[in-house]
Design brief:
- With 427 residues, the protein is α/β, with parallel strands linked by helices.
- It has a single domain, classed as FAD/NAD(P)-binding domain (3-Layer(bba) Sandwich), CATH 3.50.50.60.
- The protein is 33% helix and 22% strand.
- It is built from ten helices and 22 strands.
- The strands form five sheets. Strands 6-5-11-12-13-10-15-22 form an eight-stranded mixed β-sheet, sandwiched between helices.
- The longest helix has 23 residues.
- The radius of gyration is 21 Å and the shape is globular.
- The C terminus is likely disordered.
């Protein structure tokens, strides 16, 4: 039997993103009075209609099965499933990672009705939660802190375009186009996104996006790309000493609960919101449960990020070849990549050895012992002149922008973000 609101004080949640709304839904279903506060005017407003991936390889359980088990409805938003992904090697070789299961689910982030943000919003409202948009609150006045990124550890830039190309997804490891990270192409129902992620701070960073678009145009000649807008944002990667402090629960990106290697964060964000709600309802211990269920994956990702920071295209090529060799052997392209993300004794030891040198203390974290992955400086190999094709892409975008094309990030300076500040690193 659900509790009546009068039995308990109201629960105030700071942030109407996925983690906050997941917690709000479960709490409201249990009869609690729930108020969600967000400084923006809608859930998903810090995004601009870009696509993000829900990975499905890091854990044995399918993520959608988890959602249903938690009492959340994956049918509330549009998700496009892929079992085949183009794996692009740094030497431009294109192979395919395949599985009989689900490799990726692609969702849209933003305020469109079919976006995952709006799906979670509807679930919270239907459960009885009250959402206050344009509402500024302090951490001290809230029980759950789910307000997203505060610092910058990495950035992503992308272009959204119209296309008649069939649905497709491609993932590319190339240290020139995406220093320390990856680029990708996603096409869903006539809308495409080409994006590059930068894990080293660059000058004139838009040149990386132009060069990336030029590469995909050359290797996917049937894109028929019609640029619409450019999107961008930042990722904030932290390790917290505590995840519950003074009665406050830090969930999602506010708790540093995401993947440090490639930025996947939606799965852990929702999961952390569920764990916080269960603790409030007397069904768990948030600090214990986060450390048991989520932190092994976070620690593994920190170790992976340390390794990624020290390699380039030569190692990326070896990774791609090993991935494809394992797929040929096992008949499933998810197994190799899944092992990369899963906790091992070696990754746990490496985490303990490298974190003192990787992370810097955040003095503004209200005594929670937060350490942040800094935005690393550029390397000498990051300096290069744009190709003629990339210059043509740049001029094309200038023309589109002159006709009203929208940009959601500030040019050439990753520290400057537009008002709808985004966390677009695949989270």
């Amino acid at each position: 039997m659900a509790d009546t609101p009068s039995q308990h004080p109201p629960v105030h949640i700071m942030g109407a993103g996925l983690s906050g709304l997941a917690a709000a839904t479960l709490l409201a279903k249990a009869g609690r009075e729930v108020h969600v506060h967000d400084i923006r005017q809608d859930s998903g407003a810090r995004f601009d209609g870009d696509f993000q991936a829900l990975e499905n390889w890091s854990m044995d359980d399918d993520f959608f099965d988890q959602l249903e088990a938690w009492g959340l409805a994956p049918s509330s938003f549009k998700a496009t499933t892929f079992d085949t992904v183009d794996l692009i090697h740094p030497d431009d070789v294109i192979t395919q990672a395949k599985t009989s299961g689900v490799a990726y689910r692609i969702v849209e982030r933003g305020t469109s009705e079919h976006a995952i943000d709006q799906g979670f919003k509807r679930q919270a409202l239907e459960a009885g939660a009250t959402i206050h948009y344009g509402s500024r609150v302090s951490e001290e006045d809230c029980t759950i802190i789910a307000c997203g990124p505060k610092g910058t550890s990495a950035v992503a830039y992308g272009e959204i375009f119209k296309t008649d190309h069939p649905n497709h997804i491609a993932f590319q490891l190339n240290d020139k186009l995406a220093p320390g990270s990856y680029s990708y192409l996603i096409i869903i129902d006539g809308v495409g996104l080409i994006c590059t992620c930068l894990w080293r701070k660059q000058r004139k960073s838009e040149r990386f996006l132009n060069e990336t678009i030029a590469w995909y145009e050359a290797h996917y000649p049937n894109l028929n790309r019609q640029p619409v807008k450019r999107v961008g944002g930042k990722g904030d990667f932290t390790i917290n000493q505590t995840y519950k402090q003074d009665g406050r629960y830090y969930v999602g990106e506010s708790g540093g609960l995401q993947d440090f290697m490639w930025g996947f964060g939606m799965r852990m964000a929702v999961w952390s919101g569920v764990l916080a709600a269960r603790d409030i309802l007397g069904e768990g211990d948030y600090e214990r449960d986060v450390r048991r269920h989520l932190m092994p994956y976070v620690r593994t990702s920190v170790a992976n990020r340390w390794l990624m920071n020290r390699v380039g295209d030569r190692m990326f090529k070896r990774m791609c070849k090993a991935w494809m060799k394992d797929q040929d052997k096992r008949g499933d392209g998810l197994i190799w990549i899944g092992k990369l993300f899963r906790p091992t004794m070696f990754k746990g030891l490496l985490y303990r050895l490298v974190t003192p040198f990787m992370l810097v203390k955040d003095s503004k974290a209200m005594g929670r012992g937060v350490r942040r992955l800094p935005f690393r400086p550029a390397l000498k190999r990051d300096e290069w002149e744009p190709s003629d094709e990339a210059i043509a892409i740049r001029e094309q975008w200038k023309a589109v922008r002159g006709q009203g094309g929208h940009v959601s990030f500030a040019n050439d300076n990753e520290s400057e973000v537009q008002p709808q500040e985004k966390a677009a690193i695949s989270s």
